[in-house]
Write the structure tokens for this entry.
Amino acid sequence: MSKPYVNVEIENEVGYIEFFHPAHNSLPGDLLAKLAKTITEAGENNDIKVIVLKSGGDRTFCAGASFNELININDAATGKVFFSGFANVINAMRKCPKFIVGRIQGKTVGGGVGLAASTDYCMATKFAAIKLSELNIGIGPFVVGPAIERKMGLSAMSQIAIDANSFYAPEWAKEKGLYTHVFDTTEALDEAVKNTAEHLCTYNPEAMLEMKKVFWNGTDHWDELLAERAETSGRLVLSDFTKEKLKKFE
């Protein structure tokens, strides 16, 4: 398993969307675009009643955006496009008419925390610590911030955004509302995800759609908001401060 991919498999009316990248599931722009498209298409597929979002591999759910692409940004327009990648996935999840269950098997950083926060029901293992590291390189979690704040509250979001060096334990994330359950093993997580998703398939799809609207009430402006946030990040990534910081990763 070395090539990047986004796959969808349907089993018992559950659409399992899985993404993978060999660099700790960090996501370049083309993979983010495919993920957003796949989520949108799953939402329109009558054979799917509930969606599960998961990643390949054992150790990391998602390490955020691709550092290789980040390092090579040289103008504001390219920067905005780059940071719009996670914005487009979050908005696809927001607009999806079906419940999305998150399966977080390992550590998740930056944009990955935004993905977890954008699921409607999210379960994890005891290895699924979270971190927002963006301030370390002179930008901030601007694009994913609204999704994390919506799920965990402004206080928790600001805490992990400011404490950009620290991983926060899964139990802390559960206390703050990001995770519903934390399991000791991936096997236990997978069983719970399967059982939960298949049980949700027995619910009235119209009722789930109406509940989804309730969950995301007040976010109709996010297309514009996240585009503005992407523009902010695209500008900051060109700053002398950030350019100096990124040199350490070249």
Q: What stands out?
A: The radius of gyration is 17 Å. The mean pLDDT is 96. Strands lie at 5-11, 14-20, 50-55, 60-62, 100-104, 107-109, 121-125, 130-131, 181-183. The chain is about 50% helix and 15% strand.
